[in-house]
Design brief:
This protein has 368 residues and is mainly alpha-helical. It is 86% helix and 0% strand. The C terminus is likely disordered.
Amino acid sequence: MTVKVVAFLFEKKSIRILVTLILIFTLIYLVSITRFIFEPVGAYLTAIAVPIIGAGIIFYITNPIVNWLEKKKVPRFAGTLIVFLLILLIITIIINFVAPVVQRQFSNFVESVPKMVDNAEKLFEMWQENQNIIPPQFENTIQNVMDNFSQYAERITASIIGVIGQIFSFVFAFFLIPFFLFFMLKDGYKFVPFVSNFLSPSKAKSFKKLTANINHTLASFIQGQFIVSLCVGIMLYIGYLIIGLDYSLSLALFGLVMNFIPFLGPFLSAIPAIIVGFFQDPILAVWATVVMVVAQQIESNLISPNVMGRALSIHPLTVITLILAAGGIAGFLGLLFVIPAYAVVKTIIAHFYHEWEKKQPEEDPDLF
C-alpha cells in the first residue's frame, strides 16, 4: 500500500520537482562539508582557468576567420597560423603605437590628480563665499566631503592602479593562452564527435544539441560584445578628439573595456571623462557627456540590434541583479563574466528541462 502511495505521489509533476530540488540542495550541502576533498581540484582549475578562459574568448573572436579560410580551401592548420600572424601583427601595433601613448597619458593624469583636488577645493570655497544662505546640514555635509576629498581621490586613484595591476597580473598569466588557442582553433571541432562516440545514439544527439546551443550562446555574446565595444571605443575616441579632451585615447580605451559590462558600463566609463573635462574646462564636461550620450544612442539603436539582436534573451532586471551580485562577490572580473556564465547555465538548464519534459507521459489532470 505504501509503495502504491509513493508511486502515486511521484506521478505528480510538482512532487518530482520538489524531490529534485531537495536532492540538489542535499548535494550542495554534502559538497560544502567535504570541500577539503575538492580543494586540490579547485586549485588546479584556478591555475588553468585564466589561459582557458582567455583562449576561449580569443577563440570565439578568431574562429570565424579560420572557418572562412577553410571554406576558401585553406587547410585548418594553415588558417590557424594565419590567425596567429594577424594576432602578432595587432599586438605589435599596440605595443609600438598605442601603449606608449596610453602610458604617457595615464602618468600625466596621475600627476594632475593633486592639482585637480586643489582646484576642487578652491572652487568650493569660492562658491561658499558667494552663498548667503546655506542650510547647516547641507554645509556640514559638503564640508565633510571636501575635508576628505583628498583621501577619496587617493582611494580612487589607488583603485584604478589596483585594477591596472590586476590586468597586468592577468596578462602575465596569458603566456599559456597561445598554446590553448592553437589547439582550440586547429582541433576544437573534433571535441564533440570524440565525446559522442562514447554515448548512445540518443544521448549523443542530445549532447550535440546542447554543445551547439552553448556554442551559439557564447559566440553571440563574445563576438557581438567585442564588435559593439570596439565601435563604441572608436566613436568615443573620435568624439573626444573633436572636443579637444585631454587623455582622449586612454579615456576611449577605458570606455571600450567598460562597455563589456552591460547597462552599468556606459555610466562607469562616463565618470572619468566628465571629471577630466570639468577640470580642463567646465564646458568640456558637458561636451564629454554629449559625446558619451551620442555614442551610446548609436550603439543601442543601430549597432547592437544589428550585431547582437536578442541572442541572450535575458531580462534587463536580471542583468542588473547579476551585475550587482557579481561585482560584490568577484569584483571587476565578475562584472565581465557573469552575463555569459549565466547565459550558459540558463542554456544548460533549459536543454535538460526540455529533454526531461519530452520523456514524461501526459499528466492526468485529476492528479492535481
